[in-house]
């Protein structure tokens, strides 16, 4: 009999973390490697947020807190939802966890039974299908390809819904494509959901603040108030406030679901770090102007990366609305052979050859459920990006 559980056998380790680790190892071994796999801003946490954490330590805020969040943080989150999304929640409708990942996981664990289906548009954030599997549910993957700018169409959503559908996971702007849904595009999906009252929406708004040009962010419960009672609106401070290591995420939804998520958390991790929670209070209540400053840098990088990748033979790279990723198609490279002799049969072969021959680490599309493509994170310096894209151009130009 296996020592490890059958549950564990259903999931795989995160492929994005695997790429980052591989790139780090090659670098440590002295190879000239540029990593474009990171899922976190390269900016530092703002000083006022760090100061708030230090002050919390000095005040002795170092004890257990309420399991699913300090009252002060819940109040700051309620204010944020009102201010940014025109959504009214009470503190009893808010759950704070150790990162956005934990709140999403809690919600799935608290609601899924064997046979329950969860609709996940592909390409997807790598953790959604595995979290669904860990919770005993069945992921239903629906492709949203480059032809529809990586956005799920209402027809595809409607066709995927069955009597067993419990959740629809919605992520805009998206990891890995950066695609952001306009208000009309969100409305087209919520119109479908209004016809299926048994389906709940898990909206992962983690990249809400990272949007460019004149894109306006919208979230389902805001666009369609009729879905308020069956929507869990998820967000966090990790990406917008460059706080990935602090581990604070939060979700808002019906009180009975929030209570169940808290019960689960009370028997696993208890409260997120008290110090990180006080830092998050400052992040949400304090000055927000550095977000625009960071976004100006991200936009400049996005534009450069898109231009340079589109100049590489065989690559087509759409311009995304947000996040810090682009998701170029490599359909034009498939079937060719690299200068080092690797046959590019799929996107994993492409990424492996690119890393080995040119020292550029990207995550291949199959990891996100949509091939042939790869994900570039542009959360790294302009110089790194220029050099990496030059190497990708060289790599593609020498495919035969
Ligand atoms: C779409 C999406 N949701 C949630 C998360 C999780 O964020 P956190 O670091 O707060 O757990 C990530 C992190 O990569 C993400 O890309």
TrEMBL record:
<dbReference type="InterPro" id="IPR050596">
    <property type="entry name" value="AspAT/PAT-like"/>
</dbReference>
<protein>
    <recommendedName>
        <fullName>Aminotransferase</fullName>
        <ecNumber>2.6.1.-</ecNumber>
    </recommendedName>
</protein>
<dbReference type="GO" id="GO:0030170">
    <property type="term" value="F:pyridoxal phosphate binding"/>
</dbReference>
<dbReference type="InterPro" id="IPR015422">
    <property type="entry name" value="PyrdxlP-dep_Trfase_small"/>
</dbReference>
<dbReference type="InterPro" id="IPR004838">
    <property type="entry name" value="NHTrfase_class1_PyrdxlP-BS"/>
</dbReference>
<keyword id="KW-0808">Transferase</keyword>
<dbReference type="InterPro" id="IPR015421">
    <property type="entry name" value="PyrdxlP-dep_Trfase_major"/>
</dbReference>
<dbReference type="GO" id="GO:0006520">
    <property type="term" value="P:amino acid metabolic process"/>
</dbReference>
<feature type="domain" description="Aminotransferase class I/classII large">
    <location>
        <begin position="31"/>
        <end position="392"/>
    </location>
</feature>
<comment type="similarity">
    <text>Belongs to the class-I pyridoxal-phosphate-dependent aminotransferase family.</text>
</comment>
<comment type="subunit">
    <text>Homodimer.</text>
</comment>
<dbReference type="Pfam" id="PF00155">
    <property type="entry name" value="Aminotran_1_2"/>
</dbReference>
<dbReference type="InterPro" id="IPR004839">
    <property type="entry name" value="Aminotransferase_I/II_large"/>
</dbReference>
<keyword id="KW-0663">Pyridoxal phosphate</keyword>
<dbReference type="GO" id="GO:0004069">
    <property type="term" value="F:L-aspartate:2-oxoglutarate aminotransferase activity"/>
</dbReference>
<keyword id="KW-0032">Aminotransferase</keyword>
<dbReference type="InterPro" id="IPR015424">
    <property type="entry name" value="PyrdxlP-dep_Trfase"/>
</dbReference>
